């Protein structure tokens, strides 16, 4: 017995092309919007009020290499990878942009201050607020929710 089935001609499948285009557009718009959401979370983590020298001394320098790890109990509710804003140059160097319909790139300029923060120094432990924000469990959960909601909204508006 031969193969059985239904064969559709191209005219009958035009709706799939239309749906594919709408879904691709919704997907691209979702990536852009959720990328901006991620950039906002990162900017929050690089614009905390900087601790004064006196505060750092009273907290026994929680970012000091001598401890072996960042002393989270000393820095309050901020994440251990958060960065205080002194001049704001590090925060200003962080940029986000849609590179294609599947990717939103968040980068920072390779400046001396960025290197000191991300690589650390002889005295201070390194912190990478971009990577560590994106990899945090709280952010991953919020990102999934934002992505699902945004995609649904974009598909409905098509």
List keywords for this structure.
158 residues, mainly alpha, two-stranded parallel ribbon, two-stranded antiparallel sheet, 6 helices, 50% helix, elongated
Strand content: 5-15%
| Cross-sheet strand order for the largest sheet | 1-2
* Uncertain regions spanning at least 5 consecutive residues: none
The proportion of residues forming helix, as a percent range, comes to 40-55%
Structure annotation, total helices: 6
What number is the mean pLDDT?
A: 87
Number of strands: 4
Number of domains: 1
User: Helix and strand string, N-terminal first?
Assistant: HEHEHEEHHH
What does this structure look like?
The chain is mainly alpha-helical and 158 residues long. It has one domain. 50% of the residues lie in helices and 11% in strands. The protein has six helices and four strands. The protein has helices at residues 14-45, 53-58, 89-93, 112-119, 129-135, 137-157; strands at residues 48-49, 84-85, 94-100, 103-108. The protein has a two-stranded parallel sheet with strand order 1-2. It has a two-stranded antiparallel sheet with strand order 3-4. α1 (14-45) packs across α5 and α1 (14-45) runs antiparallel to α6 (137-157). It is elongated and about 75 Å long. The mean pLDDT is 87.
């Amino acid at each position: 017995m031969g193969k059985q089935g239904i064969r559709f001609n191209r005219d009958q499948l035009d709706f799939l092309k239309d749906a594919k285009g709408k879904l691709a557009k919704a997907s691209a718009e979702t990536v852009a919007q959720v990328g901006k959401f991620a950039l906002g979370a990162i900017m929050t983590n690089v614009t905390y009020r900087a601790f004064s020298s006196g505060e750092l001394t009273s907290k026994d320098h929680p970012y000091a290499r001598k401890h072996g790890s960042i002393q989270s109990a000393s820095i309050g509710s901020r994440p251990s990878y958060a960065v205080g804003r002194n001049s704001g140059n590090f925060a200003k160097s962080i940029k986000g942009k849609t590179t294609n319909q599947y990717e939103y790139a968040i980068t920072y300029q390779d400046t001396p201050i960025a290197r000191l923060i991300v690589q650390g120094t002889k005295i201070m432990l390194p912190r990478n607020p971009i990577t560590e924000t994106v990899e945090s469990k709280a952010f991953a959960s919020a990102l999934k929710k934002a992505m699902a909601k945004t995609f649904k909204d974009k598909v409905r508006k098509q």
